[in-house]
Each structure stands twice: as structure tokens, then as C-alpha cells.
Amino acid sequence: MNLNATLFFQMIVFFVLGWVTMKFVWPPITKAIEERRQKIAEGLAAADKGKSDLAQTKARIAAMEESAKSDLHVRVTEAEKHGAHIVEQARAEAESERARIVEQARQEAAQEMQRARESLRNEVADLAVQGAGRILQREVDAKAHAELLAQLKAQL
User: Fold this and answer.
1) Is-contact 124 152, C-beta < 8 A?
2) Please, which residues have CB within 8 angstroms of residue 139's CB and are 6 or more apart in sequence?
3) 138 and 114 in contact (C-beta within 8 Å)?
4) How many Cα atoms occupy the beta-carbon half-sphere of 73 within 13 Å?
5) What are the backbone angles phi and psi of residue 3, rounded to the nearest 5°?
6) What are the helix and strand counts (H, E) for the chain?
7) What residue intervals traverse the membrane (predicted)?
8) pLDDT tens profile 5-53
9) CA distance 86 to 16
10) How far is CA 109 from the centre of its chain?
């Protein structure tokens, strides 16, 4: 065997194999690699878009939290003011009720005192008439008795 011929045929086989590989095997492999590269690029782009969406969402959530906090603060302040107003209103109503009750008690006491004076006047008048009747040792008629009682009441 000739070494040159073997080497020559091996070279021809190598080139034919290289050409077949380049013509029939290599295009599907490069196509699959390119498709995979494109999918990876799309995945990375989607991940970047997801990150930016996440950052925007976090910013919106932070803004909503701040808005909710300020709204809560406003509502709490309004509730405190409303509560203080209700307490002041209740105090004012209680004060007016207390004043009304005190005035009513004073009026009732004055009326009771007036009734007691009137009763005392009647009793004093009766005692005075009885005393005068004993002194005079005679009975005074009813009309005169009523007139005397009225005069004594007026003087007392």
C-alpha cells in the first residue's frame, strides 16, 4: 500500500465528510442554537421587563401606602376633633341640664318655703284667734273669724 494514496483518500474522505457535515448537519445545529439564543434573549428581555414592572409596582405601592397613611392621619385627626366636639357638646348639655335642675330645685324650695310660711301663718292665726277667744271668753262668729284671720295673715 501506498502511503501517499492512503493519505490522499483520507483527505478526500475528510473533505467529503466536512462538506456533508457543513451541508446537512451544521445548518440544523446552527438553527437550533440560534433559536435557543433567541429564546434566551427573549427570556432575558422579559425578565428585564418584569424587573422594571416590579419596580414600578413597588413605587405605586409605596405611593399608595403613603396616601393611605396620610388619609388615615387625616381621618384620625377628624375623628379626634369630632370626639372632642361631642365631648364639649355633652358637657354643655350637662351644664345646661345641671343649671335647669338647680333652678327647678330652687323654685321647688321657694314654693315649699312659701307653703310652709302660709301653713305657719294659718296656724299662728288659728292660735291667735283661740287665744283671743279664751281671753274674751266668748265665741266670735265665722265671718268675723275669717276677717280676723285675713288681717293676721296680711300682717305676718
Assistant:
1) yes
2) 133
3) no
4) 6
5) -70, -35
6) 3, 0
7) 6-26
8) 899 999 999 999 999 999 999 999 999 999 999 999 999 999 999 999 9
9) 101
10) 47
- pTM, 2 dp: 0.44
CA distance 76 to 79: 5
153, three cell numbers? 295673715
Cell numbers representing residue 78 in the block: 377628624
Cell of 109: 324650695
CB of 153 closer than 8 Å to CB of 121:
yes
pLDDT (tens digit, 9 = 90+) per residue, 40-90? 999 999 999 999 999 999 999 999 999 999 999 999 999 999 999 999 999
* Tens digit of each residue's pLDDT (9 = 90 or more) over 125-154: 777 777 676 566 555 566 776 777 777 677
> Counting Cβ atoms within 10 Å, is residue 41 exposed (0-12), middle (13-18) or buried (19+)?
exposed
Beta-carbon count within 10 A of 125 CB: 19
- Cα(152)–Cα(156) distance, integer angstroms: 6
